[in-house]
Amino acid sequence: MGQGQALLDALGDWEGVEVIGVERRDGDPDEIHVSLKRREDAPLYCNCCGRACERVHEHVQRTVRDLPLFDAITYLEITI
Predict the structure, then answer these.
(1) Number of domains into which the chain is organized
(2) pTM score over 0.85
């Protein structure tokens, strides 16, 4: 298991998603940015109604503030 997968496991249930990068930014307070992407083999769901779909209609960048890690503000960034 790679470090990225171990991080996802620590963050919770993120089936169908993989870590593509982690960056710690020094500041006051420090920030951690975790870049995620949907795995190619993951099922697709409509962002509006939640139903399964067969192809991607658009890509949307989302940034979510998560609970702090190592006393740093943590952001999860994913394109869905």
Answers:
(1) 1
(2) no
- In angstroms, the CA 7 to CA 43 distance is 22
DSSP state of 61: E
For the stretch 46-67, pLDDT in tens is 777 888 888 877 788 899 998 8
Q: Which residues contact 53 (CB under 8 A, 6 or more apart)?
A: 44, 45, 46
User: What does DSSP say about strands 52-53 and 61-69: parallel, antiparallel, or unpaired?
Assistant: unpaired
DSSP assignment of 6-53: HHHHHH---TTEEEEEEEEE-SSS-EEEEEEEE-TTSPEE-TTT--EE
Instruction: Round the average pLDDT of the chain to a whole number and report it.
Output: 82
16: left (phi over 0), alpha (psi -120 to 50) or beta: left
Under 8 Å CB-to-CB from 15, ≥6 apart: which residues?
Answer: 42
